[in-house]
Specification:
Layout lengths: L1 H8 L5 H16 L11 E10 L5 E7 L4 E3 L1 E4 L6 H13 L4 E3 L6 E7 L2 E3 L2 E3 L2 E12 L12 E8 H6 L4 H14 L4
Parallel strand pairs: 1-9
Antiparallel strand pairs: 1-4, 2-3, 2-10, 5-9, 6-9, 7-8
């Protein structure tokens, strides 16, 4: 599996990423349905840390389920090309068309707990996302639009605001890590 090779080759940024990488590789080797939501305990998702050209702002969406400012992204749904997933989700969730990856390489790894919730009228059990993040650049002057079934606002924020406005404590740690890693691209 190409995705397994990419995750194995990734150089972890910190202890969290090293442990999450180890678990992701074990899950890939254990579960045949890890790329789909049919695996109700753990499945892959992909996120985009979407920054402006100057790397001073990040594009965040107010996520309807989590009721928090959040990065962009979504489920792999069978696609093992997670950069493609991150780009697709960014376009779908924001309406942006002028976006590009700053690298084809993985930007970050994280395993994220997802509390049980209702989506489209059905209960979704508590589970985890095996998440791969990519660094994406977008034009902050391009018009955005919400995706009403997923978010209720889209906003460019300073890097610090993106952390501060997030109401999920663990995600604030992840967003700060992504901001810290961004210094390499400044």
């Amino acid at each position: 599996m190409k995705l397994r090779n990419q995750i194995a080759a990734y150089e972890p940024h910190n202890e969290q990423e090293a442990k999450d990488q180890e678990v992701m590789l074990r899950y890939i080797d254990t579960f045949p349905d890890i790329l789909t939501r049919k695996n109700e305990f753990a499945h892959f998702s992909s996120s985009a840390w979407t920054v402006n050209k100057d790397r001073t702002k990040v594009l965040m969406a107010f996520h309807n389920i989590y009721q928090s400012w959040s990065w962009l992204g979504g489920h792999a749904d069978g696609d093992d090309h997670l950069l493609r997933v991150a780009l697709r989700e960014t376009r779908e969730e924001t309406g942006l068309t002028t976006i590009k990856p700053l690298s084809d390489e993985i930007y970050s790894l994280e395993i994220l707990g997802v509390d049980g919730h209702v989506k489209n009228g059905s209960h979704v059990a508590t589970h985890v996302h095996l998440n791969v993040t990519y660094l994406i650049e977008a034009d902050e002057n391009e018009r955005t639009q919400i995706k009403p079934d997923e978010n209720s606002a889209i906003q460019w924020m300073t890097l610090a605001e993106a952390v501060e406005k997030c109401s999920e404590p663990y995600m604030r740690i992840i967003y700060q890590k992504l901001n810290d890693k961004l210094k390499v691209y400044a």
